[in-house]
Amino acid sequence: MLKTKSSSNSNNTNLLYLLVYLLTINFRILSTKMAGAQIAVKVGVVLDMYAYGNMTFNCISTALSDFYATHDHYKTRLDLITRDSKGDVIGAAAAALDLLKNVQVQAIIGPMYSVQANFLISLGQRAEVPIITFSATSPSLSLLRSPYFIRAALNDSSQVGPIVAIVQAFGWREVVLIYEDNEFGEGIVPFLIDALGKAKVLVPYRSVIPPLATDDQIAAELYKLMTMQTRIFIVHVLNPLAARLFTKAKEIGMMSQDYAWITTDSVANDFNSMDPPSVMLGVIGVRPYIPNTKQLDDFRIRYKEIVQQTNPKALNSDPDIYVLWAYDSAIALAMAAEEAGLKDLTYQVTKTSSNSTDLESFGVSLSGPNLTRALSNTAFVGLAGNFHLIDGELQAPPYEIVNMVGPEARVIGYWMKENGIVSELNFTSSSANAYSTSKFNLGSTIWPGNKSSPPKGWVVPTNGKKLRVGVPVKVSFTEFVRVTWNSDNSTKVEGYCIDVFDAVMAALPYGVPYEYIPFATPDHKIAGDYNDLAQQVYLGNYDAVAGDVTIIGNRSQYVDFTLPYAESGISMVVPVEDDKRGNKSLFLKPLTRNMWFLTVASFVSIGFMVHIFERPKNKEFRGSLGHELGMIFWFPVSTVFFAHSKLTPHIIF
Questions:
Q1: What's the per-residue H, E or C state across 525-572?
Q2: What is the per-residue pLDDT for 19?
Q3: pTM assigned to the model
C-alpha cells in the first residue's frame, strides 16, 4: 500500500515539472513573438558627453528601464542613439543634423544649453521632429514659436516673480543685474527689468560677464560695482562661472554686511555642490519646489551608484533638478510614443536642387506631428513633481526661497503665484488670499558677513557726482546759517537750516553725496542778495540751496521751493510766567485788594442799614447778638441769589 502511494506521488511530481516546462517554453515563444511585434522608435540624444553628460544619459537610460519594467505591454520601445555636442553650438548642430539626415530619428532629447538649442529648434521645425530639452531654460527660445520645441524644464521667466517679491519684502529700491553674456544670460533680462519696473525698483547698471572670463576680468568688473551706490545684486549665471564669481567677491570684500546677493535657480539648484561653500555665506536663492516622494528617495539611492560609476571622485551625489527633468522627459516621450500609435517611422524625401546643402537634404518625419501632439497632452507625476505641458512648456510649481547658512542651503520660505511669499505651502487653501511680499513670512536669514539684519541696500558711492548745495553767507541771524572758513580755506557750514537739510538727506532710502558751497566772493564776502542766490540755481551753478530763503513770487518763477518748515514775519518774544492755575486764590486776581475791601464794606453797610430799618417791626431781625450779627452779614450776600420781598416788607426799593 505504501509503495503504491509513493509511486503515485512520483508520477504527479513528474507531471508538474512537465507542465512548468511547457509553460516556460510557451512564455518564451510568446515573449519572442511580442518582442518581434515591438516597434523600435529611434530617439537621438545630443549631450556634452563629459562626466555630467554621461551621468545624465545614464539617468535617461535608467528612466526607460524603470518605465518599461512596469509597462511591458507597450508595443513601442525607445531606441536611444547618442551624439556628442562637444560643448559648443557647432558641435550640437552637427550632431542633430547627423541624427536627422543619416539616422532619421523621430525625436531628439537635448541639447544641454540654451545657446545650443536655438539652431536645433530650427532643424526640428524643418524636419517636423520634436526637440525635447530638459535644461535649456532661456525665455528667448520661446520667441521662435516652434510647435516642435518641447521644454521639459521651467522657463527662466517663471522665477522673476519670487525674485521681485524678495526685493519688495526688504524695501530695496535699486538692484544691479549680473548675468552671463550669452543666450542663457540675456533671455531673462527683459522680463526681470519689466517686473522690477512695475514694483518701482530701478536697475541703474547691468553687469555682463563673458562665460570664459578670466579671474582678472571678473575682479575688474566687481571692483567697478564696488564704486557704485547699489549693494543689491541679482545673479543669473551658470554654475562654473558662479563659483569663480563668488570666490572673487569674497576675496575683495564684497561678501560683507553691506551687500545682498540674490541668485536665480541656475545657481541655487547647485548651492550644496559649491566648493568651497563658505564663499556663498548669506546668499539668497530661489529654486523650484520638488515634493519629497518615495519614488524620489529610491532614485536618489540608485543615482549615487550611477555617480560612482561615472565619476568616482564626485563630491556631491544628490541629483539636481536637471537630472530629474531628464528622467521625466524620457518617461514622457515613452508614454507619448505609445499614445501616438506610431507605425510609419520613415521620412518623406523632399525635392532639392543639385546645389542644395546638407541643411536642405534631409526629409520630413511622417510621425513627428502625431508624436508632438501626444507629447503635448502627456501628464503624470514624475520625480520633479507634476509633468504638465502648456504651449509646449512645463508649468511652474511653487518656488523655494533658500539661504546659504554654511555647508548647505536652508529653506526660509516659499513663493506661490497666487499668494506671494508664504512661510509654509498649503495647496488646499483658497487662492483668494491676498498676495503678500512681507518679510515676516520668511524664516531667520543669515546675510553676508554672518549678520542677522538685512543690509539697507546702498552706500555713498565713491565715483558719483556730488550734489552742489549753495548756502548764503550771513552777518546776522547766523543761528539759521553760519559759514566759517578754516586756515586751509576749507569751510564749515552749520545752523538750523543746515541741520534740517542734513536730516532730510539722511532719511532718503538711497545715498546722495552732496557738498555745501558758500555763495561768497573770493574774499569771503556775500556775493549777492537772496534773489541772486536763487538765480544761481536757475543758471545751473548750484543744484539746490539750503538756507533761510523766503518764498516769494519772483523767485518761484525760476526755482521750486520745498514746503515751508518755518514761518517768516514779525513776532514778539515775551517772558513766560509760571502757571498759576493750581492756585486756589486765583479767582481774586480780577479785582485789586482795595476793590475787594470796598465791596465787602458795601455789603456790610447795606446789611447794617437793613437791620436798623427792619429790627423794630420784623421779628426775623431780632434775637441774640450772634443772630443779629449773622443777619447783618448774611442778608447782603443772599440778595445775590434770591429776592427778599417777604423778609423785608417794610423796605421799598
A1: CECCCHHHHHHHHHHCCCCEECCCCCCCHHHHCCCCCCCCCCCCCCCC
A2: 55
A3: 0.71
